[in-house]
Amino acid sequence: MTMPHPAPDIVDDAVAGASDRASRYRWLICGLLFAATAINYVDRQMIGVLKPVLQAELGWRESDYANIVFWFQCAYALGFLAMGRFMDRVGARIGYAAAFTFWTLAHAAHGLVSGIAQFIAVRFALGIGEAGNFPAGLKVVAEWFPQKERALAIGLFNAGANVGAIATPLIVPAITIAYGWRAAFIVTGLVSLIWVAAWLLLYRRPEDHARVSPGELAYIRSDPVRASAPIPWSRLFTIRQTWAYALPKFCIDPIWWMFLFWLPDFLGKRYGLDLKSFGPPLVVIYLMSDAGSVLGGWASSRLIARGWSVNAARKATLLACALAVLPVVTVQSIDNLWAAVLLIGLATAGHQAFSANILTLPSDLFPRAAIGSVVGIGGTAGAIGGMLIAQFVGYVLDMTGSYALIFAVAGSAYLVALALLHIISPRLLPTGELAS
Questions:
Q1: What does the DSSP 8-state code read for residue 48?
Q2: What's the pLDDT tens digit per position in 335-351?
Q3: What pTM did the predictor assign?
Q4: What is the DSSP annotation of 263-328?
């Protein structure tokens, strides 16, 4: 899978120092995160792309499919709590490799099962493993990037989600038509294990890496060090900043899951597309998402570089993203396929830009030693929202056959998430700066 080229620094080279120009290894690390996230999303989205085939061959009802998605989300919720703590304890190098290997084997196992209960079992295992991706990735970004670059780095690696979503409808139908859906799961799973070898070969902490120059290391560590005593895991639930991250995740993550697992179905039912024809619309939608992810991370990073406070830069960008999503509430009534595709693409771009900024909050607000745990708590909140949206979508489709109410919820969720963030943390103060 192609990794992104190293991104230019958003600050003047003089800040980083002359020696930094010869050492930008942090962007190769960002490329590894990008690749892992792309693979992660191929693995999770495949069931959505193959839904019509699986329903026809295995006789699934809408509620059966919703239950399979529900149990994936349940495992993802449980896995996030465990994986966040696991990454903080064992470190990103070993933790990421272990999680990646586990979810890849679970993904390949989809090609060996048939019944609903068996699919639930392998999806549950997949959810446990895939929950390690973002706790590990965000911990790596906090270790390898100064605050002024984190939103951009997160936007770049989070763009892997869209690349995975683009690759899936291009690769999977071809394998399925030629060799069957079972081969599609097995082949994509085994090939992606190459990433584990690359990760173990290339990744170390910045302080331990021979490829990192003293100038680059000084730049990475250029943020003021916040004195902070270790925060017990149980105490994180009593800190406002935890909920400033978790509640917006509860609001927005389910919308992304809805797009990921039901968008092929929507395009099929509303516009008559099938396994051979919904690839181009999905590619356009997720290319727009990719642009949104990078642009959203760049925008707040640029505002911070221009002297805006972290609070103002993050929230101004989040507001623009939320407004970009809002028009999707009308998409069910649009008869033209490509007009609907552009509207959905704008919404998914807004989501990814919004998400790139929300994902910076743990590193903005917490010491490095707690980031994995906080990301885990937020991921669990988002996955619980995903469990609810799975049942909601299945119920609405069984009862009405229409996506109108579903898109109404999707369009409004981001404004609600931003309002909750601002109410809980009006100034985005780090934990060490709490006023009593």
A1: H
A2: 999 999 999 999 999 99
A3: 0.75
A4: HHHHHHHHH---TTTSHHHHHHHHHHHHHHHHHHHHHHHHHHHTT--HHHHHHHHHHHHHHHHGGG
